[in-house]
Predict the 3D structure of the following.
Amino acid sequence: MEIIPAIDLLNGKCVRLNQGNYNEVTKFNSDPVKQAQIWESKGAKRLHLVDLDGAKTGEPINDLKIKEIKKSITIPIQLGGGIRSIDRAKELFDIGIDRIILGTIAIENPKLVKDLSKEYPKRVAVGIDAKEGMVATRGWLKQSEISSLDLARQLNDLELAAIISTDIATDGTLKGPNVQALREIAEISINPVIASGGIGSIADLISLADFEDEGIEGIIVGRALYDGSIDLNEAILTLKNLILQDSFNDKDKFLV
């Protein structure tokens, strides 16, 4: 199970929002390129990058910074925020982005999601960002009329890299993930699920590690890494040891 550090870009700076509120911004690093290098040096195998300006406006305001980040690290990048056309998706793939994350267009233009997933199998992820079970769009500024579970079910016909499931009510709060919602998404989806939102401690990571067999393959961590609640290297080692221990226990049961 991957622990994936997040960098959210707003006006070229590394920030975090509280529950997706653009009026509640905490700036953590004015140099997101340096921050990406730090996460790689601490053992990250993938970076989760979000263009908050793009999510809100649909405009590629942070492209220069995105290109700098890509050039500065060797680990793959998954990027979301404002990707609402085939041309935009191709631009990002051309600069070396490993995965794109589609959000708003999964509701507004499902055919585009289908077309992109066919052209780029296993390189397109869909972010299902939900508030009280209903999907939010346009950088979480608008509420749709479709539930997160219904959307996950509709995506089962596509060959996606992952579904990234975020509970907006927990995002940025450090109060723990919505485990029930994540399990429900994982049960419905035939695509792998990446958990996002609310991670505040290593105990939260451990609570989700139990569901790896149910399809949760990664955990995105943001604010907890920046404020020191979680040390990335320690967290990676903890989950690795936990999974190894579970593997040994399973072998012991088989031998008995």
About this structure: The chain has eleven helices and twelve strands. The first helix runs from residue 32 to 41. Residues 34 and 69 are 8 Å apart (CA to CA). The chain has a mean pLDDT of 89.
